[in-house]
């Protein structure tokens, strides 16, 4: 719908490496259902939300960029063309995460819950499920990022760090975890 609204004719697609395999399928969908004439798949993979490649897309004659997988660290009103961020949401058994937290941390522990954008909805659901047992459970925010979201270059500094027992971090790698650990070196961190 957004592509039709913008009357996009030449669309650039940008992906992190793990999602690049879906590029040709999405290109076919956009051409079939969104009146897009040409789709350019940017082969240089994106490594983060700060890597929106609007300059390359512009030089290739694109009038719209679809950036998959990362949050909008670069505001859409400053890109060289119209831009749409598509967040990837990875689902998993949130009940298992809650059980792990309850097994490893005593009720009432003062915990921080954070992770990468792919797990933002799971982080919010986990917070809702655990808030009764952990009333001080906090999901910090480093604006303009979403609550609980951490990037390799942008991590929230937790207020009153001395009173926090641990950071529970939801991610599929170590890079982003290390960012929040560097920003909060006195708080022990655990990755799920």
Automatic annotation (TrEMBL):
Transmembrane segments: none annotated. It catalyses: L-histidyl-[translation elongation factor 2] + S-adenosyl-L-methionine = 2-[(3S)-amino-3-carboxypropyl]-L-histidyl-[translation elongation factor 2] + S-methyl-5'-thioadenosine + H(+). Pathway: Protein modification; peptidyl-diphthamide biosynthesis. It comes from the Eukaryota. GO terms for molecular function: 2-(3-amino-3-carboxypropyl)histidine synthase activity; iron-sulfur cluster binding; metal ion binding. Keywords: Iron, Iron-sulfur, Metal-binding, S-adenosyl-L-methionine, Transferase. Its EC number is 2.5.1.108. GO terms for biological process: protein histidyl modification to diphthamide. Its cofactor is [4Fe-4S] cluster. Belongs to the DPH1/DPH2 family. DPH1 subfamily. This is 2-(3-amino-3-carboxypropyl)histidine synthase subunit 1.
